Amino acid sequence: AQSVTQLGSHVSVSEGALVLLRCNYSSSVPPYLFWYVQYPNQGLQLLLKYTTGATLVKGINGFEAEFKKSETSFHLTKPSAHMSDAAEYFCAVSDNAGNNRKLIWGLGTSLAVNP
Amino acid sequence: DTAVSQTPKYLVTQMGNDKSIKCEQNLGHDTMYWYKQDSKKFLKIMFSYNNKELIINETVPNRFSPKSPDKAHLNLHINSLELGDSAVYFCASSQVLQPSNSPLHFGNGTRLTVT
Known about the structure:
Chain A is mainly beta.
């Protein structure tokens, strides 16, 4: 069965510092991988996704993530945090073998950015 | 134009009442979902519909009944509301049914408070 683990339910960084949010998954088939962001009092929106091809994917707002099959990871990074990045971040996996009709979600990581 | 819109944004009601939440998407997507997000931000899928057909019906009390009059609308009716139903309910849509690389588009949520 597929699963998603986000290490660290809360991450705090200083403005301008590197952001690293960790996501590990388990899947018996090649996955589709997603990062979503949820700003306060809003719905989730897609940050970026990995489907096939290039393993380093770039998303909105300067975020990027790298798919590492050997490590079953899809960590999210941003070189320099901005105050506006404070939000909840969710990693999700979908298999591409047609067996699972739903996205599997991580529990989320709350990112705080300190001035 | 809002892609996925749900109403109302806030819903405060007493135990035992019946209430509905409406959702509409103007993206031309085939699939729509209802998610529940609890106070710890955990996301749980409740239902998914594809072209008005129920695809996923998770372990949700049968007090919750979705209705999809057409593929652009998915409403959620809740009977005999209980304190534990308090949460934020999100409607979402995707171009095609999961599993796929098609991301979800979320509404801004309905915060339901049962007193």
